[in-house]
Amino acid sequence: MAAILTVTLNPTVDMSSEADLVRPTHKIRTFNERYDAGGGGINVARVVTTLGGEAEALFLAGGVTGALLDDLLARDRIRRRKFPINASTRISFAVYERETSQEYRFVPSGPMIEPQELKGCLEFLRADRSPYVVASGSLPRGVPGDSLAEMADIAAARGARFVLDSSGDGLRVTLDRSRVFLVKPSRGELEYLVGHELDEQGIREAAADLVRRGKATFVAVTMGAEGALLASAEQLIRVPALHVPVRSAVGAGDSFLAAMTFALSEGRRPEDALRFGLAAGAAAVLTPGTELCRREDVLRLYAEACGQVAGDRL
Questions:
Q1: pLDDT in tens, 193-242
Q2: Which of 80, 135, 223, 229 has the fewest CB atoms inside 10 Å of its own CB, making it the most exposed?
């Protein structure tokens, strides 16, 4: 049993590289290729493990790309539970353009999942005893929109804290039907939930409303360069962004969620967990391609976020 079990229904083999210039119709030579296991929950498990926590990644995978995904997780020594599917796992591709410092990201929708292929995941969740369950990432084609809500109900029935980071039906239906411990929408995802654009005050009110209506104990809204916000029944905390040189945006939100969940699982105060998440998200954009955050960068930026010297405990 790991302290944090992550669920990734639509994982990916993440490939990243660099090119001098990206131009249409031309053969583009790339450099510094890198391959990593990816997808929301898998990224969360990678970051929790990097930070010294105990995580296990539950995921669907198939084909030769699914085998490669499993090999990449083994390479990084990530505890994992693979459930096979007939279709092949998707491959995402990011290219950093040296001349402009721009990043191009290509993300396929992913394979079609058959109804019976999800059953093993649900059975495992019923038997598992991890105190935290993190469902992160998009729903693959063929998976019902209420699948994450069903997982939230399974986790709640055995006393686990369910953490949600999804979009579309995965976000809306789960919050309509179930109560979660922590939900982490981006600004755009929160606007999707309420049906219109939000200014600063609107974000505060929408996050607080989710808590007030019993949808979540904590609502953490990430706003990119504008920082983040955490709403709970007791307080609303707003923290500014940590401004760092941007090398790649891949996995920044997943790093935020991983570090925040890890800090909460360690008994940290919500405001400390929010700042730790902010530090991990900022640390992730410092690294190239699909590397995610480095522990030493997270600790340094966490100290900056807190305005004091951070110890080595986290």
A1: 999 999 999 999 999 999 999 999 999 999 988 999 999 999 999 999 89
A2: 223
Whole-model pTM over 0.85: yes
| 120's tokens | 């093993």
Question: Which residue among 36, 146, 254, 272 is the active-site one?
Answer: 254
4-22+30-306 CATH pick, 3.10.310.20, 3.40.350.10, 3.40.50.20, 3.40.1190.20 = 3.40.1190.20
Is-catalytic flag, 14? Answer: no
Inter-CA distances, 100 with 34, 103, 172, 258, 292, Å = 20, 9, 37, 30, 22
Domain ranges of the chain: 4-22+30-306
Residue 215: phi and psi, rounded to 5, are -80, -30
pLDDT tens sequence across 33-51: 999 999 999 999 999 999 9
- Given a contact cutoff of 8 angstroms between Cβ atoms, the answer to whether 180 and 215 are in contact is yes
